[in-house]
Specification:
Elements (H helix, E strand, L loop, with lengths): L6 E7 L2 E6 L10 H14 L7 E6 L3 E3 L14 H27 L4 E5 L2 E3 L1 H8 L2 E5 L3 E3 L14 H9 L1 H10 L2 E3 H7 L4 E3 L4 H13 L3 H14 L5 H17 L2 H10 L12
Parallel strand pairs: 2-3, 3-5, 4-6, 5-7, 6-8, 7-10
Antiparallel strand pairs: 1-2, 8-9
Helix pairs in contact: 1-2, 3-4, 4-5, 8-9
């Protein structure tokens, strides 16, 4: 398993990888080194058939506090320097934002185990995951608006209305107020509230249920969800579902599952070959 400086990787069980952002002294704030390392790791997952579920969490008392404001993004510049730096800042912004797209493109479902504050880009990382669980004291903050930026960053204006509805999303994006885990669950942003210190354990419980399913079916479910959330019509969504189900029937996993169902036992799927 490759090693990275800004996060840790652990495989507690077969098929499951825990990615722990590891800058606890800065509440795991995002730097460009972290951005590039995450892109590199996600690149490796696109062809990784052994890793079937990712759990994303943070070291220490925070999940991710957003972009590290001490890492240079907020440098004071003269008027003369601004024009020259616009292109550079635009490239940097796109590179950070592309992480949310990269998280959706990899075939593995991602479970956010929110162990503390998830602010700014950290909140966006959580939204880009497939499933979110959080400890009761966890806070979600659309902090972009609180530091003089637009409320839309790293996919927040896209995901938040889809997750909790337009009006609630608008309130959070416009005010930048704290959203604690119990209210987040009531809104549908997270699916479970875990005891303190238990976010990863709660995520592992969900991951185990995913890993027990068809490897092909798991990947294809993420694909149809990605496309279905913005499908132009019911007909378009059905077209993709029908194509995917036809492939799934021929994948071999369906036959193993059908046989197990008839025999009233859990299905055991063969390992895929690279």
């Amino acid at each position: 398993m490759p090693s990275y400086e800004t996060f840790l990787l652990d495989k507690p069980e077969e098929g499951i990888t825990v990615l722990t952002l590891n800058r606890p002294d800065r509440l795991n704030a995002i730097t460009m080194q972290m951005v590039e390392e995450l892109h590199s790791f996600y690149d490796s997952l696109e062809s990784d058939i052994e890793t079937r579920v990712i759990i994303l969490t943070g070291a220490g008392r925070g999940f991710c506090s957003g972009t590290d404001l001490k890492s240079g993004r907020n440098e004071q510049q003269s008027a003369e320097d601004i024009r020259a730096s616009v292109s550079k800042h635009s490239r940097t912004q796109r590179r950070i934002a592309d992480l949310s797209l990269h998280m959706r493109k990899i075939p593995q479902p991602i479970i956010a185990a929110v162990n503390g504050v998830a602010a700014g880009g950290g909140f966006s990382f959580a939204m880009a995951c497939d499933v979110r669980v959080a400890v009761e004291s966890a806070r979600f903050i659309c902090s972009y608006i609180n530091i003089g930026l637009s409320g839309g960053e790293i996919g927040s204006s896209y995901w938040l209305p889809r997750l909790i509805g337009f009006a609630r999303a608008a309130e959070l994006l416009y005010t930048g107020r704290d959203l604690f885990a119990p209210e987040a669950k009531e809104m549908g942003l997270i699916s479970r509230v875990a005891p303190e210190g238990g976010a990863v354990d709660e995520a592992l419980d969900i991951a185990r249920q995913m890993v027990g399913k068809s490897p092909f079916g798991l990947r294809m479910t993420k694909e149809v969800l990605n496309q279905g959330v913005d499908a132009q019509s019911l007909e378009a969504a059905l077209y993709l579902e029908n194509r995917t189900q036809s492939l799934a029937v021929l994948s071999g996993d369906f036959m193993h599952a059908a046989k197990a169902f008839k025999e009233k036992r859990p299905a055991v799927f063969p390992k895929e070959k690279a």
